[in-house]
Amino acid sequence: MSDAPSGTAHVNRRPLLPTPAGLARASVFACAAAMAFAPALLGGCGGGEPGAPGAAPPVVTTKSGAAMVLLAGGWFEMGSDDPDQTDEPPHRVRVSPFYLDVHEVTQEEYTRAMGTNPSKWEGDRNPVEQIRWTQAAEYCNARSRLEGLKPAYDPKTGQCDFDADGYRLPTEAEWEYAARAGASTRYFFGDSPAALGQYAWFRKNETRGPRPVGRKQPNPWGLYDMYGNVWEWCHDFYDENYYRQGPEKDPRGPPSGPGREAAPKTRVLRGGCWNSRPDMCRSSYRNDEDPGYTDACFGRDVHGFVGFRCARRAPAPGP
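Now predict its structure.
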């Protein structure tokens, strides 16, 4: 069985709620770091001023009870200098401040918003899996409506309104920025995968399926399971050459849609999964999958490889 979603073939195609104690650790810095920031329609600690890159960022609790971190944004080097990975050349990128879920969306959270659970590996605290990109976008809209926010996705076209205050999937650049947590190494903890088992469920320490979220250590920014457990959908369409032509500021992937016959057809997946090799969990590793899936789609495999987490734009700072 392959260990990567099927997706469209390309040159370097790959073979393929935190615990209460964990939330307590991640929340030590939450309200202490929060300062005057424009109202964000978030509960709990409320909005906070983004911390400096590399520092522990504020944690907020949304009206629906989800924990998110407020990331400062800024410049970082995206990609890698690995000559075998032709789709991830290193380049400088700047992302704006944004919120990101502390952990992958759980089955409990998904069922609460959608009234159904498509997962094979059932468990309230397990990440929801066997998720199409379109289902992830629908969940983002449903969660937005639950909190009185403007949905970001057009349900007919899948186009995203990045100015909306509702939830969406993270862009590929946002995802990598969050995974790196200020580091420039292959993993946020260094270049060697020796310590990966402290932070991730992957092929060497899990052979049965996804595990409940938040059981491993978080990265320095308080984010759990950025490596392993389940692949995570990003907003972007996939293009092998996008890094060579995308904008420096807030890249959102190549355009696609009606009238674009040569437009990309697959969406980006990041982070690796419970059945992935260590190198597939690197911060810069790229994968992709058909957002609607085909009959033989890997992502619909009963073993449950694909999930997601939500992002949201940060409000503009006050005067």
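Residues 1-255+264-319 form a domain with the paralog of FGE (formylglycine-generating enzyme) fold (CATH 3.90.1580.10).
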